[in-house]
Design a protein that fits this description.
heterodimer; A: 259 residues; alpha/beta; four-stranded antiparallel beta sheet; 9 helices; 10 strands; globular; binds magnesium ion
Chain lengths: 259, 367
């Protein structure tokens, strides 16, 4: 077996440690004094009203968005405003996987090619090993029989499961999910949530932006509530739902739970 | 509350049969009213008249054999003997007759490559494409110009005819695609100097008419080159063609690149791809798929542009026809020149329409 060495095992207190992160889109202050730390194996759900900056927050973690103030440490890499370059972006993304709301599969590639293009051309892993990994993770997400299909031949739920397998092929230390079920028809939501739950049970560190409150409550060790670019409140699920402290969280929970 | 109701299940049915067949439908539409009928008759009549004349001129009264203008005494018929008797200069100008096999070999290789790329069932397309940009230019250079491998040297000022036109068209296409792509990528670069250079080049060149560009390139090139370096007119023209058409194709590439959504770049970054592999494996394959018809259109324009070669002093396909009628054997009549021009037009037209038919097949595939 050609087992490549995994990048050195991370022995860190925090996999993600954001300190006083601020970000603007033009004049719009979209992230305000964000402090967020995530320990290995932790599962953190992020929720909040639309436009509160949840996507921007997790896209900042893997540097798809740049921040303008503050600093953070991601998987041992110290990131400051001044050292965000193409190189650090790639390094960070070698450690972090991401699953998008709109799946973002590569439409011109088959399922197998979608899963192997990153490992082969980005990580210089042998083709054999890349295919081996792809098959393994397609099995995990129950998509093995679709290996030669193109994305547009799959349902939304199937595409999202392929996207999850794609990010697993890179053996990430952290997985980020940006509303992974928001673009799905209701009857397809569960097959995706189930795959994520299986991953959680295996000990993957995850940050999940979601509107599925029942799911968040089940899976998360901690839930973060965002509003207007700030983290208003963070607490374990039971406390989050049963004893919300801030008025804004109470109002938010009132809106989404009672209708 | 409205009353709830259930409908009975409807079996699938075949669609109603269209009446009349294709000819019936054509007649019905063409003669649906008196004015429509008149227009149809008029147009059909005109087309028929033209066709009859063409056949009578090109076949019935045409002259096929003979080696001088005297053989073509009928001014109302085509003089194909002119084309047939002069096929060597029309094909290759002053290229030495005993070396003509090199030209046949060149055209043979070119034809094989084109067929390989164009016909879907033949496998190994990427090999054909790769050789088009690597071994093919090198082989063509040594084959046509010679000077090594025991082949005699044939300087480009002895070239002529279809050879000059085809070489110019083919190598302009081959060079202009990567150049246009580089310009488009440069225009999207986040390095300001590169971006401004590319924008400036594209915008300036796009604003200059081809002939003005070719003339000034022909005179400016020798001035900017270091002393002692001499590039012949043919090479200068090919470079000028590449620069001129590169600015056109770069706009097509830019359109294709802009049609790719930002999410694809995000996804590529999150699976660990760098700039080069993102472009090569994710962005360009998708972008090029959408612009194949536009690129083929650029190729058609390049083919048609080669008809100006005569004006800047290259002895091209049209030149061999034109000056052929001034050679001592073939002085003698307007109809000989007309035959030559119709022949040239037909060659250009057939090549271009085959290309555009080919690109329309792609348009169908994209959707
Ligand atoms: N690229 C951008 N340029 C400018 N403004 C942006 C950009 N992306 C997001 N915004 C703005 O930033 C704010 C936060 O956006 P974000 O997508 O992070 O919200 P969200 O919490 O994920 O919302 P949703 O639940 O609707 O996905 C919004 O007001 C949005 O309009
Ligand atoms: Mg969002």
């Amino acid at each position: 077996m050609h087992k490549k060495k995994k990048p050195q095992k991370l022995d860190l207190k925090y996999l993600i440690d954001m300190q006083m992160i601020n970000k603007w889109f033009g004049d719009y202050h979209v992230l305000r004094d964000i402090n967020l730390s995530i320990t290995p194996n932790e599962k953190v759900a992020v929720c909040g009203p639309s436009g509160s900056g949840k996507s921007t927050l997790i896209r900042t973690i893997n540097l798809l968005e740049e921040f303008q103030q503050g600093c953070m440490e991601v998987c041992g890499l110290k990131l400051e405003v001044s050292n965000i370059t193409k190189k650090t972006k790639r390094e960070v993304n070698n450690r972090i996987g991401m699953v998008f709301q709109q799946f973002n599969l590569f439409p011109h590639l088959t399922v197998l090619q979608n899963l192997t293009v990153g490992p082969i051309w980005g990580r210089k892993i042998s083709r054999q090993e890349a295919i081996h990994r792809a098959k393994k993770y397609l099995n995990h997400v129950h998509m093995y029989e679709f290996i030669d299909k193109y994305p547009n031949e799959l349902s939304g739920g199937q595409q999202q499961r392929v996207a999850i397998a794609r990010s697993l092929c890179l053996h990430p230390d952290i997985l980020l999910f940006d509303e992974p079920t928001a673009a799905l028809d209701p009857e397809l939501v569960n097959e995706v949530l189930q795959v994520i739950e299986e991953l959680a049970a295996k000990g993957m560190t995850m940050v999940i932006v979601t509107h599925e409150m029942g799911f968040a409550r089940n899976i998360a060790d901690r839930i973060v509530f965002m509003d207007q670019g700030q983290i208003i409140e963070e607490s374990p699920p039971d406390q989050f739902f049963d004893q919300p402290r801030s008025e804004r969280l109470k109002a938010f929970l009132g809106q989404i739970l009672n209708h | 509350m409205p009353e709830s109701k259930t409908n009975t299940f409807i079996e699938a049915m075949t669609p109603p049969v269209r009446e009349g067949g294709p000819l019936g439908r054509f007649l019905k539409r063409s003669f649906s009213s008196i004015p429509n009928g008149l227009v149809t008759l008029l147009l059909l009549g005109g087309a028929g008249y033209l066709l009859i004349h063409l056949v009578s001129w090109g076949i019935v009264s045409a002259q096929w054999t003979g080696t001088t203008a005297k053989s073509c005494s009928n001014p109302d018929g085509a003089c194909w003997s002119f084309i047939i008797a002069r096929w060597k200069p029309i094909l290759a100008g002053q290229y030495p007759v005993q070396e003509l096999w090199r030209i046949f070999l060149f055209f043979g290789i070119l034809t094989i490559l084109i067929i390989w790329i164009a016909i879907r069932r033949i496998p190994g397309k990427s090999w054909a494409l790769v050789s088009l940009w690597t071994v093919f230019p090198i082989i063509s250079y040594y084959l046509l110009i010679g000077g090594s491998f025991g082949l005699s040297h044939v300087p480009t000022n002895n070239w002529g005819g279809l050879l000059v036109t085809v070489v110019t068209a083919v190598f302009t296409m081959i060079s202009t695609l990567p150049f246009g792509l580089l310009l488009a990528l440069g225009r999207m670069s986040n390095m300001p100097v590169i971006r401004l250079l590319c924008i400036g080049f594209v915008e300036i060149v796009r604003g200059i008419p081809l002939l003005a560009f070719l003339f000034s390139a022909a005179t400016i090139f020798p001035l900017v080159l270091p002393e002692g370096v001499n590039i012949d007119l043919f090479a200068r023209t090919m470079i000028a063609f590449m620069l001129f058409n590169g600015s056109m194709t770069s706009e097509v590439f830019r359109g294709g690149l802009q049609s790719i959504r930002r999410e694809q770049y995000d996804a590529a970054l999150t699976v660990g791809l760098g700039w080069f592999s993102t472009m090569a494996f994710i962005i360009l394959p998708q972008a090029i798929k959408t612009i194949v018809p536009a690129l083929v259109n650029c190729m058609i324009i390049i083919i048609k542009e080669t008809s100006v070669l005569l004006v800047i002093g290259l002895f091209d396909f049209i030149a061999t026809i034109h000056f052929g009628t001034e050679s001592p054997d073939w002085i003698g009549g307007h109809h000989i020149l007309l035959t030559g021009y119709i022949f040239t037009a037909a060659v250009y037209m057939i090549t271009c329409s085959v290309l555009s038919k080919y690109s329309r097949r792609f348009e169908g595939q994209i959707k």
